Amino acid sequence: MASRLHYSSILHLLLFLSSFHTSSANLSFNFYAGSCSVAEFLIRNTVRSATSSDPTIPGKLLRLLFHDCFVQGCDASVLIQGNGTERSDPGNASLGGFSVIDRAKNAIEILCPATVSCADIVALAARDAVEAAGGPVVEIPTGRRDGKESMAANVRPNIIDTDFTLDQMIDAFSSKGLSIQDLVVLSGAHTIGASHCNAFNGRFQRDSKGNFELIDASLDNSYAETLMNKCSSSESSSLTVSNDPETSSIFDNQYYRNLETHKGLFQTDSALMEDNRTRTMVEELASDEEIFYQRWSESFVKLSMVGVRVGEDGEIRRSCSSVN
């Protein structure tokens, strides 16, 4: 079955990593082989178990990695609790999956205390979440260290808002060392997961009777009608809508086919189909799931290495929600 294949051989990734411009030189495959050989097994089992009881977990874990890496690098700073931390910022209020990370960390600490970083657990859990949802198996290097600080003020300037223009998204990704192709490919994460109505209600407006009406012409009318009906109730602030209206719990290339039929949930999704710089990429990924999986594997590795801390930089937290 194609979704279970390894799309990036270790040799391919080693060649790729050797040319990558971050501080990834101290990351390596099987980093914990000698110090905690069961680490990746425990994380994978924790993710699988959590997903079997809650199919929304993969989307939450994948989003958690994005929000961690885009703010201060992939250093698990998003996990730290407390006033004024990244986790306390309203931009991160809807994040989930923290309990899965904590369970994996607790299991590892019993066998390998003070050895495996929370940053690696977040990256590996996101990797395993894609596999659990039927996506490709990706080999990623480990050896990340945990950050010692987390500031809410760093969140808003770094995360992608759902109403960003394509140029704004390109700038944001470029600032993290990620290309336009990475932007299009990593947007494929929206093939799983769900979002609150307030994340996309800027595509509608209320009429004089208080009913929603469509103001974004890039959205399919029937799909827009479905969204407006779903989000029109007084409880809409707590309601969620699947990012992918067709195969919401399966990591496939349906997201790109949705874009071709103007059924991207966010303005940032629709923007990929409206610009010549990205439309051709969308069409290629929509037509060939194998290519999507291959490109995903490459771009995911790049994402997981943004701003990593290695060597003596940072620490290995004993608890993921607080610094040592």
What fraction of residues sit in β-strands?
Answer: under 5%
What spatial form do the alpha-carbon principal axes imply?
globular
Work out the helix count.
12
Sheet having the most strands: 2 strands, antiparallel
Mean pLDDT: 90
Q: Quaternary status of these chains?
A: single chain
Strand order of the largest sheet: 1-4
Helix content: 40-55%
One letter per element, helices H and strands E, the order comes to HHHHHHHEEEHEHHHH
The value of Rg in angstroms is 19 Å
Distance between the termini: 44 Å
Spans with pLDDT under 50 lasting ≥5 residues? 8-12, 14-23
The count of DSSP E runs of length 2 or more, i.e. the number of strands, is: 4
Structural class: mainly alpha
Describe the structure.
The structure is a single chain. The chain is 42% helix and 4% strand. With 324 residues, the chain is mainly alpha-helical. Helix 2 packs antiparallel against helix 4, helix 7 (180-186) crosses helix 11 and helix 7 crosses helix 12. The termini are far apart. Its main location: secreted. Ca(2+) 1 binds at residues 68, 71, 73, 75, 77, 86. Its cofactor is Ca(2+); heme b.
